[in-house]
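Example A, followed by Example B.
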Amino acid sequence: QVQLVECGGGLVQPGGSLRLSCAAAGSIFSYNIMGWYRQAPGKQRELVATMTNGGSANYADFVKGRFTISRANPENTVYLQMNSLKPEDTAVYYCNLRFFGDDYWGKGTLVTVSL
């Protein structure tokens, strides 16, 4: 059984920062990819950032230079440091874990960027 739990979402003003955390528990293969996706109302779920267990990161263009993904592999935890937040970053952010072709998802945490 695999379970992912996100935390760290909330309300932040434009230009502010938040750090999201996701802790994965269960039977997890060591060679995996963890990352973050987001979905705003009326829009498709989109990739934000991912990182392999070896530390290779992939970022969506719209967050490059603003967001940083990191991992603590022994704890199967992934973080997303979000800086210079914009109103268009408002979305539900979902933690994702992938290995052996299977995807596991957290329930999501809401990030609202507004005055």
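Example B, a separate protein, is given below in the same form.
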Amino acid sequence: QVQLVESGGGLVQPGGSLRLSCAASGSIVSISSMGWYRQAPGKQRELVAVITSGGSTNYADSVKGRFTISRDNAKNTVHLQMNSLKPEDTAVYYCNADLLYRNSGGYNRRESWGQGTQVTVSS
């Protein structure tokens, strides 16, 4: 009933940039926060950045100064501008949303996840 769709991943050289986008759709009442996680092979999924509906942001130390998260609340969309990319940024990036949605049984709150988009940084 609720779907998150990521886009913008791809292959870039070190030092390059990518902009990821994630759009939430469905019977959404509100979204308190949206964020990005990433998971590299053999590693645990980690938080990259998160932004609340009020605009507060948090970043992993490894991406501070290089990545910028933003959102359009009216469109239920979040973006991640990634600059100065490094090979260690290579991972599958997942969109996450803490949201309130409505179904036939009433209101429900949950965390939703996108399917992931591959980011590869390599020369």
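On Example B: The mean pLDDT is 95.
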